[in-house]
Design goal:
12 helices
Length: 302
């Protein structure tokens, strides 16, 4: 996990187990990372600027690695040392929007003004500074430079793409097919790169993170089209809670899946992308990379 998971001090009478329960429900709900971290901040006694507040008047210098779309430092690690503009009422609205079961302890804490985070006008920010030292865009730019060094033009769509993973994949597939079939808007060969943080609304009981879900939906849309290859992975080396960073596909992957009578839509319906890609032997396993600059997607079109 990232900073939000590693730095945990539940507020009020909330137990760690209760906070974990809420977090797991949010992960499965399809909530965006800024919504999840808004709730995390307000259920905490250390996030949302409270660590900097506790340290005042000591000088606080924060060095952050961005794993959130848009590099909003108040969202990274739920912002323990930066100001927060969201409110406890925002957190309550998010829990209601996604119909998250809320224990009484959390409900009582959010109705207590003490659950409010530290706002930008607080005196503690006089002695606090922060710097973002690694970003999703830096990873995409490095990948683009590597591709161009191999003579393949690279195009960066965005470093902050959000949305349901399977739907984001459909848009990427449409663009890839447009390039492959019509050489527009990019000439071939080329590689299309994108980052950000997609979400998965979990309805099945399968295994797999958002990157494998994205790739399985892409596989289902491309149907083994010639000259299109793709990879999707989480830059920390762990896609969701499995042991892989992600997976890759080639036109031959479709042939492999067909020979095994694997139906991609059935695996998507079960949120079981990990087992699908394990059967066709294209899981990407890197081990922990010791950094995290969010999702990484590359589509090569020859």
């Amino acid at each position: 996990g990232g900073g939000s998971a590693l730095l945990s001090l539940p507020g009020g009478d909330i137990s760690l187990a209760e906070k974990q329960q809420i977090n797991k429900a949010l992960l499965k709900s399809g909530a965006a990372i800024d919504e999840m971290n808004c709730v995390r901040k307000h259920l905490s006694s250390i996030k949302g600027g409270r660590l900097a507040k506790a340290a005042y008047p000591a000088r606080v210098v924060s060095l952050a690695i961005s794993d959130v779309p848009g590099d909003d430092i108040s969202v990274i690690a739920s912002g323990p040392t930066v100001p927060d503009t969201t409110t406890r009422f925002d957190a309550m609205a998010i829990l209601e929007r996604y119909q998250i079961e809320t224990p009484r302890s959390a409900f009582e804490w959010l109705n207590n003004p003490e659950s409010e985070t530290v706002k930008p006008d607080d005196v503690c920010w006089k002695n606090a500074e922060h710097h973002i030292i690694a970003t999703p865009m830096s990873a995409l730019e490095s990948a683009a430079a590597e591709a161009e060094g191999l003579g393949i033009p690279a195009y960066l769509l965005s470093d902050c793409i959000e949305g349901e993973a399977r739907d984001v994949a459909k848009v990427h597939a449409a663009l890839a097919k447009q390039v492959a079939n019509h050489k527009h808007p990019f000439a071939t060969p080329c590689v299309i790169l994108s980052g950000g943080e997609t979400t998965v609304t979990v309805k099945g009981n399968g295994r797999g993170g958002r990157n494998c879900e994205f790739l399985l939906s892409l596989y289902n849309e491309l149907k083994g089209q010639d000259n299109i290859f793709a990879l999707a992975a989480d830059t920390d080396g762990i896609d969701g809670v499995e042991d892989n960073a992600g997976a890759w596909i080639t036109p031959q992957t479709w042939q492999q899946g067909s020979s095994l009578s694997l139906k991609a839509q059935d695996y998507l319906d079960a949120n079981n992308s990990y087992d699908f890609f394990k059967q066709v032997d294209v899981l990407l396993t890197t081990g922990p990379t010791l950094t995290n600059v969010n999702d990484f997607r590359a589509i090569l079109i020859l």
